[in-house]
Amino acid sequence: MSRPHRSHSLEFKRQVVQEYLGGETLHGLSKRHDISRQLVRVWIEKYEAGAFDDDAHAADLIQQYEARIAALERLVGKQALELEFLKGAVRSTQRARSAPTSAIAGPAVYPSSGAAS
């Protein structure tokens, strides 16, 4: 049975890699932390490539923040459009209510100055 997807902090990944570099076996780390050996191997490769450096972590955070900002900007734009639409609907409803009404649908009827023929 597969495990549910979990997200591990950068500090945890560094700790596991440091334990491996300190002499711990992949099997031991995998059992103790309940993670796959392949995942530990991936973390070791990333660590050696410098992906766990503070600068890389900061760049990842910036990228996540920029994506969140873009999503929020899209949401604000959508809400602004909806607000303008609703304002227009309210204005047209108010205009229709203030117009003279008649029992007959249509424009208001005004008596003519001439006699009916």
TrEMBL record:
InterPro entries in alphabetical order: Homeodomain-like_sf, Transposase_8
Q: Which SUPFAM superfamilies match?
A: Homeodomain-like (SSF46689)
**Where is the region Disordered?**
92-117
Which residue ranges have biased composition labelled Polar residues?
Answer: 92-101
One Pfam short name: HTH_Tnp_1
**Protein name, entry field:** Transposase
Origin species, per record, is Sphingosinicella microcystinivorans
Record lineage: Bacteria, Pseudomonadati, Pseudomonadota, Alphaproteobacteria, Sphingomonadales
